[in-house]
Design a protein that fits this description.
The structure holds 2 protein chains of 2 kinds.
Chain A lengths: L4 H40 L5 H4 L1 H12 L17 H14 L1 H4 L15 H4 L7 H5 L4 E3 L4 E3 L1 H10 L18 H13 L26 H11 L1 H4 L6 E2 L5 E3 L17 H11 L10 H11 L14 H9 L9 E2 L2 E2 L8 H6 L11
Antiparallel strand pairs in A: 1-2, 3-4, 5-6
Helix pairs in contact in A: 4-9, 10-13, 12-13
Chain B lengths: L8 H4 L3 H6 L3 H41 L4 H9 L1 H4 L17 H4 L2 H10 L1 E2 L2 E3 L2 E3 L2 E2 L8 H15 L10 H11 L5 E2 H8 L20 H8 L8 H5 L17 H13 L5 H8 L3 H12 L15 H9 L1 E2 L4 E2 L2 H4 L18 H13 L9 H8 L2 H12 L9 H11 L1
Parallel strand pairs in B: 1-5
Antiparallel strand pairs in B: 1-4, 2-3, 6-7
Classes of the chains: A mainly alpha, B mainly alpha.
C-alpha cells in the first residue's frame, strides 16, 4: 500500500466530504465534553439547586438506611453526663459489666450481668435494659405479685448470679445502693424511649419448639462443633492469664442456678439462636438451638434456692409446666440436686453450711 | 485498488483544509472549560486543606490543654481494662489499687512496678492474687510512666500530695532495673516496702525444663529447607513488619498454625516450606518454646490508623456492624486465651492489618467457625488499620513460664 499520487487525486473529494462528517462529530463531542466539565464544576461548587440533581432524596435514603427499622438506640457511652446522676450511671454500668467486683458480696458464681445482656445491656434480643426499664412495674407469675425493677433485679441476683453462695449469702437487701446505681444506668439507657410499651428487641426473642422436640445427643454434637471453642469442651468457660473468665461457664458451680430463666430450655434456645456464636447470630437452625439449649441445661448446676422440701415438691411448686429438665432423670441421674459452691466461692462464704446441697 | 474502498483511508491522508482551520474550535472550548474547572477545584480543595490544617492545629492545642488530666487518660487507656476505671480490680484475678498497701508506698515503687511487672502470689487489701502484671517498659515513655505513677499515688494513696515522680527519675530507674525481670510476687516487693502485710511465699521453682538442643538448633540454625526461625522472626521471636511476633502466643495456637501451613489450609509459601520439614513433635516443641518467651515490644502504630477508633473496637466493639469487642475473645488487654485465641498485643500493625484483610478476602480461612472471617469482613480498611495500630501500642504478653527462668537467676545471686 503506497501513497500513489494518482489515487489521491481521485480520492480527495470523497475524503473531504467524509472528513466534514468527522469534524461535525468532533464538534458535537467537544461541546458535550465542555458542558459536562462545566456542569461537574457547578455541582461540585454547590451552585446547582439540590432538587435538580436529586441530592435531597439520596440524603434521606442514606439516613433511613442507617436505622433500618424502628429499633430504639440507647445514648452513646460517652454521653453520660458529668453530674451526680452521671456518677450513679457510671457506677451502675460498672456493676453491670463487672458484677463480681462491684457487687461482689452478692455474686456466688463466675458471671456478670453483661454475660447474658450483651454489649453492657444495649444489644437487642439479649434482653436489653432500655427495653426492660419501660415495662416495669409489672405482674410476674414467677412470684405472683407486682414487681418493681428492684424486685426484678433482686431475682437476677438470687438466681442468675446465684447469690446463695456469695459472701453475703443472698441478694442485696431492698433499698441497697446497688439497686439505685443499676436503675440509674437502666433509666439513662432508656433515655427518650416511650414507656409502658414492648419495644422492638425486648427480651431474647422467641424460637418455636420444633415439631419433634429436642435431642440431647444431637445437642452434644452442636455444642462440640459450635460452642466448645469458646466455652470449653467441658462447658466450664475459659479464663485469661490472670484467672478472670473471658468466656463464661455454662453449667457447674460457677454458672447460673436452677431457678434462673436461662435454665429453661425455651429461654436458652432463644438467647442462643439470636446471639450465639458471638458475632454470628442466627447461624444455628431452630432445631440446633433447641438441641444445644437442652444439652447445656441437662447438666447439674447450683441448686434452686427456693427448694425447702424435696426436688419433686419444688418442681411442682416452681417449675411445673416449664420447658426444664429440673426434677427429671437424665442418663440415670436425677437433675436438680445442685453442685454446691466452687472452692473459690466456698472460701468466701459467710455460712459454709449453706454450701451443703439439701435435697 | 484495495485502499480506495478502505474507510480508514481518509484519515491517513493529508487534508488541505486542516492547514487553514488551525486548532479546531471544540478543542479550544474543552481547554477553556477544563481550565475553568481546574481553577475552581484548586480553590475548593485549597479550602478543605486549610480547614483540615486548622483542625490539626486545634487538635494539638487541645492535646496541650489536657495535660492536667493526662494521668487520668493514661490510666484509662492502659490500666483500666484490668484494674477497672475505679481502681477496684477484678475479684479473684486483679488486685485493687484503691486501698492497696503497695500503692501507699508511693510513686517510686509504682514506677518500678510499671517498668518490671509482677508475677507470683501477692497479698493486697486482705486478699491474695496470683496473676501477671505486665511490664510497660516497652510500651510507655519515661514521661508517661512518671505521670501515671504520680496519678495513681495521688488518686488512691492517702500519702503526701506532692509525691510526684519525674521523667528523669524514671530514666534513672530504667537503667537500674533493666536486667531484673519482673518482681517475684509480694515477697520481693516486701523487701522494698517494709510496711506490706505478710506476703505468701513464692512457690519453689520447679526445675524449669531446659530447652532441648534440637529446638534451639531449629530456631537459630535451621536444617536443610527448614530455615532458622530466627532468620525471619528475629532472635527473640519478636518479628517485624509483616513477619509476626511469635513470643508469648499460646503454644497450641502456634502448633496449629504450623500444622495448617504444612497442610495448606493456611497459605504462605515460606512457612509452607518451613513447616513441611518439621515433625509433629518438633511443631509442639517449637510452640512451647515461643509461648514462654517474654520479650519487649518492638511494634508501633505505623499505619496512621485512628487510635481512638482502634481502642473502641478492641474494648467495646461496634455492634452496629456486628463486631463484638476484640477483647471479649482475645482476653483482657489482648493477651490471648490459651489454647485457641492468640494474643494480639504488641503484634506488628502491618501483620495484623494484613491478616484481617486476608480473612476479609478469603485468603486466610483456618479460623474455627469462620469467626475472624465474619468479623474482618465487617471492618472497613480504615477500621483494620485503626485496630492494628492500637493493638501494636499495647504492652507485650507477660508470657507465663518466664517466671521460672527468672527465679532461677534470682536464686543464683
Amino acid at each position: 500500500m503506497t501513497n500513489d499520487p494518482r489515487d489521491r487525486a481521485s480520492d480527495t473529494p470523497r475524503d473531504a466530504q467524509s472528513g466534514g462528517g468527522t469534524r461535525k462529530a468532533i464538534y458535537a463531542a467537544g461541546g458535550g465534553l465542555a458542558l459536562i466539565a462545566l456542569a461537574t464544576a457547578a455541582v461540585q461548587l454547590d451552585v446547582v439547586p439540590r432538587w435538580l440533581i436529586g441530592a435531597g432524596s439520596s440524603i434521606e435514603e442514606t439516613a433511613a438506611a442507617t436505622t433500618p427499622d424502628d429499633q430504639f438506640t440507647p445514648p452513646a457511652r460517652d454521653a453520660i453526663p458529668d453530674s451526680p446522676f452521671g456518677d450513679a450511671v457510671r457506677r451502675g454500668e460498672a456493676i453491670f459489666t463487672n458484677t463480681a467486683t462491684n457487687a461482689g458480696d452478692h455474686v456466688g458464681n463466675g458471671l456478670s450481668c453483661s454475660n447474658c445482656h450483651l454489649d453492657g445491656g444495649r444489644h437487642p434480643l439479649s434482653a436489653p435494659m432500655w427495653a426492660a426499664w419501660v415495662t416495669y412495674p409489672k405482674y410476674r407469675a414467677k412470684n405472683d405479685q407486682i414487681n418493681t425493677m428492684e424486685d426484678r433485679v433482686m431475682g437476677c441476683f438470687t438466681y442468675s448470679m446465684n447469690a446463695q453462695y456469695s459472701p453475703a449469702g443472698g441478694p442485696p437487701p431492698h433499698g441497697d445502693d446497688i439497686y439505685r446505681d443499676l436503675e440509674s444506668y437502666f433509666f439513662w439507657l432508656a433515655s427518650k424511649a416511650p414507656t409502658n410499651v414492648s419495644l422492638d428487641g425486648i427480651g431474647f426473642g422467641k424460637v418455636p419448639k420444633p415439631e419433634g422436640g429436642y435431642d440431647l445427643a444431637r445437642g452434644a454434637d452442636v455444642f462440640a462443633a459450635n460452642c466448645a471453642v469458646c466455652h470449653g469442651e467441658d462447658g466450664q468457660g475459659q479464663r485469661d492469664i490472670n484467672g478472670d473468665y473471658t468466656f463464661p461457664p455454662l453449667w457447674g458451680p460457677d454458672s447460673y442456678n436452677w431457678g434462673a430463666g436461662m435454665s429453661r430450655i425455651d429461654t436458652a434456645a432463644a438467647f442462643i439462636k439470636n446471639n450465639m456464636p458471638l458475632s454470628q447470630p442466627g447461624s444455628l437452625t431452630d432445631q440446633e438451638a433447641w438441641d444445644v439449649a437442652a444439652y447445656l441445661d441437662s447438666h447439674e448446676r447450683p441448686r434452686d434456692p427456693r427448694q425447702t422440701g424435696t426436688i419433686e415438691e419444688n418442681r411442682l411448686a416452681n417449675h411445673d409446666g416449664d420447658e426444664i429438665l429440673y426434677g427429671q432423670v437424665v442418663n440415670g441421674v436425677l437433675l436438680g440436686q445442685g453442685t454446691g459452691p466452687s472452692p473459690a466461692r466456698a472460701a468466701t462464704m459467710a455460712t459454709p453450711s449453706a454450701a451443703e446441697p439439701q435435697n | 485498488m484495495a485502499h480506495k474502498s478502505d474507510p480508514k483511508r481518509p484519515a491517513e491522508i493529508y487534508e488541505p483544509y486542516e492547514e487553514q482551520a488551525g486548532v479546531p474550535l471544540p478543542v479550544i472550548w474543552i481547554a477553556i472549560a477544563l481550565a475553568f474547572w481546574g481553577v475552581l477545584m484548586l480553590y475548593d480543595t485549597g479550602d478543605s486543606v486549610r480547614v483540615s490544617l486548622n483542625d490539626r492545629a486545634e487538635d494539638s492545642e487541645a492535646l496541650a490543654n489536657v495535660t492536667p488530666d493526662e494521668g487520668a487518660s493514661l490510666f484509662e487507656a492502659n490500666c483500666a481494662t484490668c484494674h477497672q476505671p475505679d481502681g477496684e480490680g477484678l475479684r479473684d484475678a486483679v488486685p485493687p489499687l484503691a486501698g492497696s498497701e503497695v500503692v501507699a508506698a508511693g510513686p517510686g515503687i509504682i514506677a518500678r512496678i510499671l517498668l518490671r511487672g509482677i508475677d507470683g502470689p501477692l497479698t493486697v487489701a486482705d486478699a491474695t492474687y496470683d496473676g501477671h502484671m505486665p511490664s510497660f517498659a516497652s510500651a510507655l515513655s519515661d514521661a508517661e510512666i512518671a505521670r501515671l505513677a504520680s496519678y495513681v499515688t495521688t488518686r488512691w494513696a492517702n500519702g503526701p500530695d506532692g509525691a510526684a515522680s519525674s521523667a528523669d527519675d524514671v530514666t534513672d530507674l530504667r537503667g537500674e532495673v533493666a536486667d531484673l525481670g519482673s518482681f517475684a510476687g509480694g515477697m520481693e516487693l516486701a523487701r522494698l516496702i517494709p510496711s506490706l502485710p505478710p506476703q505468701p511465699p513464692m512457690p519453689a521453682p520447679s526445675a524449669a525444663p531446659r530447652d532441648d538442643a534440637d529446638v534451639l538448633q531449629l530456631v537459630f540454625a535451621g536444617r536443610d529447607e527448614v530455615w532458622s526461625c530466627a532468620s525471619c522472626h528475629g532472635d527473640l521471636g519478636q518479628g517485624d513488619e509483616t513477619t509476626p511476633r511469635l513470643a508469648g502466643l499460646p503454644a497450641a495456637y502456634i502448633t496449629k498454625q504450623l500444622h495448617d501451613f504444612r497442610e495448606g489450609t493456611r497459605v504462605n509459601e515460606s512457612m509452607h516450606l518451613v513447616a513441611s520439614g518439621l515433625t509433629k513433635g518438633e511443631m509442639t516443641a517449637l510452640g512451647t518454646y515461643f509461648a514462654t518467651l517474654r520479650v519487649p515490644s518492638n511494634a508501633g502504630a505505623v499505619l496512621s490508623g485512628d487510635l481512638a477508633r482502634g481502642e473502641e473496637l478492641a474494648l467495646q466493639g461496634d455492634w452496629s456492624i456486628g463486631v463484638p469487642a476484640c477483647f471479649t475473645c482475645h482476653g483482657a488487654s489482648g493477651f490471648g486465651v490459651a489454647p485457641g485465641f492468640p494474643g494480639l498485643a504488641a503484634q506488628h500493625a502491618p501483620y495484623t492489618a494484613a491478616q484481617l484483610a486476608n480473612w476479609a478476602g478469603g485468603e486466610r480461612h483456618n479460623d474455627p467457625l469462620g469467626l475472624m472471617a465474619e468479623i474482618s469482613g465487617a471492618l472497613s480498611t480504615q477500621d483494620r488499620r485503626a485496630v492494628a495500630d492500637y493493638l501494636a501500642t499495647r504492652p507485650p504478653v507477660p508470657a507465663v513460664a518466664a517466671t521460672m527462668t527468672r527465679m532461677e537467676t534470682d536464686d543464683d545471686q
